[in-house]
Amino acid sequence: MINYKYLGITFLATLVIAYSQIKNKTEARTEKTADKTILISGYPIKPVAISKVKITDNFWLPIIKKVQEKTIEYAIQKCTEEGRFENFLIAGGVKKGTVKGKMPFDDSDVYKIIEGASNSLISSPDPKLEVLLDSLIAIIKIAQEKDGYLTTWRTINPAKPPADWVKVDKGVRWEYMNMSHEEYNAGHMYEAAAVHFKATGKRNFLDIALKNADFFVKTFGEGNGQILAVPGHQIIETGLVKLYEITGKKDYLKLAKFFLDHRGDSNKKENYKEYAQDHKPVVQQDEVVGHAVRAVYMYAGMTDIAAIYKHKSYREAVDKLWNNMVEKKIYVTGGIGAKHDGEAFGANYELPNLTAYNETCAAIGSVYWNNRLFNFTGDVKYNDLLERTMYNAVISGMSLKGTEFFYPNPLESDGKYKFNMGACTRSGWFDCSCCPTNLIRFIPAIPGLIYAQEKETLFVNLYMSNNADISLANNKLKISQETNYPWDGKVKLDINPEKASVFTIKLRVPGWARNEVMPGGLYSYKDKSTALPTLIINGKKQDAVITNGYFVINRKWNKGDKIEVNFPMGIREVIASEKIAEDQNKIALEYGPLVYAVEEADNADVDGITVNSKTSLKVTVQPDLLHGVHVIQGSNDEKKFTAIPYYSWSNRGIGKMKVWLPKKE
Predict the structure, then answer these.
(1) Which of 34, 71, 421, 553 pairs as cysteine with 201 (C-beta 3.0–4.6 A)?
(2) Which has the closest alpha carbon to 162: 96, 231, 100?
């Protein structure tokens, strides 16, 4: 639980107490109305909600609890120190001052913290945290203008943006939307308000978001007096869809589609070109380009539209874009975005290691996109990539303490190149703090990725210990999962249906257990494993066949039925496509879903480490190292080396690191 030491003693607490009581500006309807929620979904496959899954896992539970107990509070402290909350009060006229902070999207950090805390409330109810969120929401409401507009820096002084790269001319709304981030702030607000409403049943934040969304509906379009424009930094599209799912108001869905339909339209207010995926209509795009975070947020929105409208052209476009990404523009960790310049995808096969960008936000955006694609299609490949990205490119973004962060996530470090916004290791915070707050909103939502259902079919997508209550079309069941994944490939599941009945369980066989590094073929295993996954039901080994990446079990299930699966784990050597110049004559090491790296903290001569056909490799358990990890011990011509899971590197000071090791016979 958060210790709330800041409540009552810090500047934030002063603001909460003083201003959450201001009449006429902060009164909000907080009655619980969750039972009236519409919750429309255009996806055939539905995730099993966070509220229905209780994590007990030795790997993921500590990470989730770290965010709940430490990172959320830490981020609130940082946002207080940097004036994120104060901006809302200044914008609302109850405090005097100039805009605080250095980014036009600082408001979004507040929204993301509320979203993460709301996801936390779903799985770990906490009355004090709920009260704190109500206070923060009251502060947000103070800044909202009468017509619904809400971007604090514009309201405080539209002629003086916090960053010099945000252009102004007349000092009015919607100037230079590519960098103003007004719609980006709104999108994160919608996403957060939707989660808060689902978590608490309260309308206080939702009503703020709906008022703002109604204002957007009136402002943008092709009617008289409306603005023909599209967002600079995408995310309002998925946020609008979330509001549509709750309210059923089609205006929100139509506006999301409008924003997407008019990218590449030369007649609109501004043209952002390739940097913001505005170089051609979205249905004609077939290569992932430009700012990687903007891109995957947009692709997630396109997938929403493809699913809800059953839109063939949108579906074909997202398929082409995804294929281009996994076949030509992705790192072995699942990270995306090769270039610091523009935080962008590079050219096909441009995947440098030392200067890799791989923004944490881009990895999280990729997970959101892949989850949608799975819910749309049921194809195993999307969860294969989602898993790889989560275990490697996402959680590497946060230190084991939970209070230091990577913005970029390279695959190599020389200990000198300051890749992380001026640092060689994780930093406590950033002027642009999108990545820490994105981790906060995402990690507590992980329980919602484990299971999904479609009619009478239950998908088991991720493996982590948990207990879940699941509703299929004609039955309810309790399921418990016990595993030491990712250190061990053995998984036990207890199935307890409310009534004995026939239904289907589809257990994902991870790509690495099917001799596939990841979809797309950009990387492959040097040698094929002959060890096959096994399936046991009620103590009897099954002659199981892997069908499209799943163990598919259709039978009559009874209370007390048990499933055991085993995905044989071993050290795997990965080689890259010959088209990735920098990775030629090199190998990367994997164990299960984890990519490994050699780090100077364990190896005095990182640059001297090589592998060859005589190199012996073994896994050893190190319970006291890096919060408990399995390491790979290598021995080669009397030279020894140690490799650790990539996500855990740079927790012991600055030093060299490599994922790709040279081959030398």
Answers:
(1) 34
(2) 100
Residue 41 in this model has a pLDDT that exceeds 90: no
CA distance 143 to 94: 9
C-alpha span between 173 and 180 (Å, rounded): 9
Give which of 356, 436, 442, 354 is closest to 399, Cα–Cα: 436
- Torsions phi, psi for 628 (to 5 deg): 95, 105
Helices (H), 157-291: 177-180, 182-200, 204-219, 236-247, 250-261
Q: Contact 491/481 with Cβ under 8 angstroms?
A: yes
Name the residue among 384, 385, 657 with its Cα closest to residue 509: 384
Contact 615, 634 (CB under 8 A): yes
Which helix (H) or strand (E) segment holds residue 460: the answer is strand 457-460
Q: Any long-range contacts for 96-99 (C-beta under 8 Å, 24+ apart)? A: 97/156, 98/156, 98/157, 98/160, 99/152, 99/153, 99/156, 99/157, 99/160, 99/161, 99/162
pTM over 0.85: yes
Per-residue pLDDT reduced to its tens digit, 42-98: 899 999 999 999 999 999 999 999 999 999 999 999 999 999 999 999 999 999 999
C-alpha distances in angstroms, 451 versus 50, 161, 290, 519, 562? 10, 44, 33, 21, 17
Amino acid at 121: L
Q: Which long-range contacts (CB under 8 A, 24 or more apart) does 609-612 make?
A: 609/634, 609/639, 609/641, 609/658, 609/661, 609/662, 610/636, 610/661, 610/662, 610/663, 610/664, 611/573, 611/587, 611/636, 611/661, 611/662, 611/663, 611/664, 612/636, 612/663, 612/664, 612/665
pLDDT score recorded for residue 544: 86
C-alpha to C-alpha distance for 652 and 399, rounded to whole angstroms: 10
Quickly list DSSP for 461-524.
-S---EEEEEE-SS-EEEEEEEE-TTT--EEEEEEEESS-EEEEEEEE--GGGGT-SSTTSSEE
Residue 16 has pLDDT above 50, yes or no: no
Q: What's the N-to-C CA distance of the chain in angstroms? A: 53
CA distance 628 to 639: 25
Report the alpha-carbon distance of residue 578 to residue 427 in Å, rounded. Answer: 35
- Structure token pair of residue 80: 């207080």
Q: What is the pLDDT of residues 323-377, one digit of tens each?
A: 999 999 999 999 999 999 999 999 999 999 999 999 999 999 999 999 999 999 9
What are 208-254's pLDDT values in tens digits? Answer: 999 999 999 999 999 999 999 999 999 999 999 999 999 999 999 99
Classify 54 as helix, strand or coil.
Answer: strand
374: helix, strand or coil: helix
Are the C-beta atoms of residues 465 and 537 closer than 8 Å to each other?
Answer: no
Residue whose token pair is 């109500």: 134
- Quote the tokens at residue 44: 């055939």
Q: Which two tokens stand for residue 458?
A: 């239950």
* Residue of 528, 483, 399, 560 whose CA lies nearest to 67: 399
Question: What distance in Å separates the CA atoms of residue 305 and residue 240, rounded to the nearest whole number?
Answer: 11
Region of residue 519 (phi > 0: left; psi between -120 and 50: alpha; otherwise: beta):
beta
By residue count, the chain amounts to: 665
HSE, CB side, 13 Å, CA atoms: give it for residue 226.
Answer: 15
* Dihedral pair phi/psi, residue 87, rounded to 5°: -55, -40
